[in-house]
Amino acid sequence: MESVNFEKRLLLINPWQTYEKHLESEYQSYIPYGLACIGAIGIEQGYNTRIVDCLEDETRIEMGNFIRFGKKSDEIEDVITKFKPNIVGLSSTFSMFERDATSIAEIVKKIDPTIVVILGGVTATLPEVYEPLLLKTTVYDIMSIGEGEDTFRDLLKNYNLNTRKIENLYAIPGIAYKENGSVVCTSDRELIRDLDSLPFPAFELLNMQKILNNRGH
Description:
Blueprint: E1 9-14, E2 17-20, H1 33-44, E3 48-53, E4 60-63, E5 66-69, H2 73-83, E6 87-91, H3 98-111, E7 116-120, H4 127-136, E8 142-144, H5 149-157, E9 159-160, E10 165-166, E11 175-179, E12 182-185, H6 208-213
Parallel strand pairs: 1-3, 1-6, 6-7, 7-8
Antiparallel strand pairs: 2-5, 4-5, 8-11, 9-10, 11-12
Helix pairs in contact: 1-5, 2-3
């Protein structure tokens, strides 16, 4: 009989980036500091936590009139299939890269629809962007609006391993989600005033040498 793993697993992904060809020179990789901060929250909450930084790779893929930088789709599929996360957090730092984050969310849900997918970053903070995403797609479960550390702490605390759902969403400030065909926004979350209350960013989850040696950095 196959053994059951009761460990909670959190996968954080910094998506690849796609540019129109004439904007290719605008690309630059960066250290995904925000995900390192969220990763530290995951570790704090007892989750087996992993970060995949698509931009750490120098892969360049031509797609018609577009250029995509970052890991290949099959690499992401392989990580998700083997790691079997309960929750996937995606970062969308600029609204122009929303489609890149969404394409990865689609991969996640295709592999396992029960994985909770959370979007954070600028895209998840703009209602004109996140409301259509929640209403017109089925790949996002929750939008983390604004600062994400305390919000993720609450989300991770309320994850139920048996139901594979995050419970009590209505009581968690700073999120948006879909319920009965409508977007529900909870109360605003106050800004974090005591930064010392946060764990040190989990840079150990990043391949810093690879990131810093990336020619796009």
